[in-house]
Design brief:
heterodimer, A: alpha/beta, Rossmann fold, nine-stranded mixed sheet, two-stranded antiparallel ribbon, about 25% helix, B: alpha+beta, Butyryl-Coa Dehydrogenase, subunit A, domain 1, Butyryl-CoA Dehydrogenase, subunit A, domain 2, Butyryl-CoA Dehydrogenase, subunit A, domain 3, 3 domains, four-stranded antiparallel sheet, three-stranded mixed sheet, 11 helices, 9 strands
Chain lengths: ~250, ~375
């Protein structure tokens, strides 16, 4: 069984976000890149499934759509334990474009399970996984908190309001995973780090695909003002401030 | 001159940092206060390969360079120097010595399990009457023909109880003085070995430090490390590399304390502003940052020389001296910046200050480092 884990390359959470070219582009100079946290959890779960001797998982591949600045992130995924990395050499224009590129790769290189993090910590689009499933006409399951393989019986849990839904499915399918899919991301071992460069990192040319969106402008959120503390006994004062000062009522 | 780290070195640094935050930070204060050996933490450290970082891949180690080791030691030591001293002794003093001077049989039997983190090593040189003066060995390893008979006492032994493999420095031919000293691999469960109680230390309290007594312990001849009479040189060469480990540990203690002080200074307000905006505090932090950066360069230079196969004893002595003195100064200032809060255990800096003191003493006191450095000036 082969697992494909979709990896986003995102700025470290301490990055000071700034823009360039008239605020139309994200300024990535000096940015520290990391694996998207949800994708890292997905990779961890894929590793656990492979290491479980009772399963038939024999290959984990990570895939990314983007430029060479992501190669270090992909090598970290290899250090964590992925067998192979693939980078589609394209500027990731939007979720449709990214999902389309991955789908084109899947058409030539089929996988049994495709993991995609529920969102990336930069654009928070929450779309790529579902779009891949749609492009490939595979079952796509969202908000996945666990995937278990019992021989070839696949059980997937997903979070729903107030509880969980337990599903059975067959390969191939797309699991859009969220927190809970693994306890915590795996730390690469020293041997893993040293072996990472010996594992294949294939760079594939981009497919000719439509881009549906154009980014016009970025804006930073307004700076938060100072916090005003209102006594819990003073509901009238709160209403007055919300109506006359904040003007939200 | 390239001051940038490689991708692998940065990955190693980040892995050590993540490990320290996730596995070492929880419970570090309690482990220190109650002198609880970090069993689970050391096991996980070993599983990730941190205990055999420098050992070649052929012997199940990480095959890493010394610069990577410095980076990892700094990150681990920022949080828990009880764990980092176990890591340093295993890597620098025990694994290094066996890999460099051991026979193939010794490497297969002893090095591989230590490199994999399955077993811990300890380095037994110090004695009640022989600390800085390591030539005054009273522990004897009498040549009995087909084995050595070991008798004596070693003290201040890191991992004295938890180690399975000891490297013991002992006198075989006293008439030859330091040229009659041997280095022997001794299995810790050998008959005749007894371990004293856990030393109740000022700092690094969670690492197990013990006296180890040998009473007619039989050590097979095949466990001799290097040639007859090589023991003192072996110990000195091992300590040259060990200094890089302890220098990096001191660097980590200093940088950990500095980061805590910097954070505190940006949060604590007095006289209407954050204390970092008071020049008295700002200048302290500036001095701390500068000295830490200098200590880091010393450590990395010594590591680079070792990786290049160049002589590094002089550089490692400078690194250890400077980093240890910096750790003591910086941690003291970190407590000062924290004010009253710095004096309580909850804020970590008092523990770092207690930990820093040992780096000025063990694996060659600061005074011994000055002897090494001053002799090197005229050589």
């Amino acid at each position: 069984m082969k697992i494909l884990v979709c990896i986003s390359n995102v700025p470290d959470t301490t990055t000071k976000v700034k823009f360039k070219e008239g605020d139309s582009l994200f300024d990535d100079s000096g940015v520290q890149w990391i694996i998207n946290p949800w994708d890292e959890l997905a990779l961890t779960r894929a590793m656990e499934l492979k290491e479980d001797a009772g399963n038939s998982v024999n290959e984990i591949c990570v895939i990314h759509v983007g430029g060479a600045s992501a190669d270090a992130t992909l090598r970290k995924a290899l250090a964590i334990g992925a067998d192979k990395a693939v980078r589609i050499d394209a500027c990731p224009a939007d979720a449709y474009h990214v999902a389309g590129q991955i789908a084109e790769y899947l058409k030539e290189n089929p996988f049994d399970i495709i993991f995609s993090g529920i969102e990336s910590s930069d654009y928070n689009g929450s779309s790529v996984g579902a779009m891949i499933a749609e492009f490939m006409d595979y079952p796509g399951i969202s908000s996945v908190t666990s995937v278990n393989l019992d021989d070839d019986d696949i059980q997937v849990n997903r979070a729903i309001p107030g509880g969980k839904q337990v599903l059975k499915t067959e390969t191939p399918f797309v699991a859009v995973v969220q927190k809970g899919i693994a306890m915590e991301p795996r730390i690469p071992s020293m041997r893993g780090i040293m072996m990472a460069r010996k594992k294949p990192l294939e760079v594939k040319p981009a497919a000719e695909l439509e881009v549906l969106t154009e980014s016009i402008k970025f804006e930073l959120p307004q700076e938060k003002g100072a916090c005003k503390m209102i006594d819990s006994e003073s509901a009238e004062q709160l209403v007055d401030l919300l109506k006359n000062e904040a003007k939200v009522l | 001159m390239n001051f940038e780290f490689t991708e692998e070195q940065l990955m190693i640094r980040d892995a050590a940092r993540d490990f320290a935050q996730r596995e070492l930070l929880p419970g570090v204060i309690e482990r220190d206060e109650k002198a609880i050996y970090p069993t689970e933490q050391v096991k996980k450290l070993g599983e990730l390969g941190f205990l055999g970082m420098l050992v070649g891949l052929d012997y199940d180690g990480g095959g890493m360079d010394t610069i990577s080791y410095v980076l990892a030691m700094e990150e681990i030591s920022k949080i828990d120097s009880s764990v980092s001293v176990i890591m340093s002794v295993n890597n620098s003093l025990v694994c290094w010595g066996v890999e460099k001077f051991g026979t193939e049989k010794q490497k297969q039997k002893y090095l591989k399990p230590m490199a994999r983190g399955e077993k811990i090593g300890a380095f037994l040189l110090s004695e009640p009457e022989a600390g800085s003066d390591a030539t005054s060995q009273r522990t004897t390893a009498v040549d009995m023909g087909d084995h050595y008979l070991l008798n004596g006492t070693k003290n201040w032994i890191t991992s004295g109880k938890s180690a399975s493999t000891y490297i013991v420095i002992a006198q075989t031919h006293p008439e030859l003085k330091h040229r009659g000293i041997n280095a022997l691999i001794v299995e810790a469960d050998s008959e005749g070995i007894s371990v004293g109680p856990h030393e109740n230390k000022m700092g690094m309290r969670a690492s197990d430090t013990h006296s180890v007594m040998f009473n007619n312990v039989i050590v097979p001849k095949e466990n001799l490390l290097g040639e007859e009479g090589f023991g003192f040189k072996f110990a000195m060469k091992s300590l040259e590399g060990g200094r890089i480990g302890i220098a990096s540990q001191a660097l980590g203690i200093a940088s950990g304390a500095y980061e805590l002080a910097l954070k505190y200074a940006q949060e604590r307000k007095t006289f209407g502003k954050e204390i970092i905006n008071h020049q008295a505090i700002a200048f302290k932090l500036a001095d701390m940052a500068t000295e830490i950066e200098a200590a880091r360069f010393f450590c990395l230079k010594a590591a680079w020389l070792k990786d290049q196969g160049k002589p590094y004893g002089h550089a490692s002595a400078m690194a250890k001296l400077y980093a240890a003195e910096t750790a003591m100064k910086v941690t003291t200032e970190a407590v000062q910046i924290h004010g009253g809060y710095g004096y309580v255990k909850e804020y970590h800096v008092e523990r770092l200050m207690r930990d820093a003191k040992l780096t000025q003493i063990y694996e060659g006191t600061s005074e011994i480092q000055k002897i090494v450095i001053s002799r090197g000036l005229v050589d």
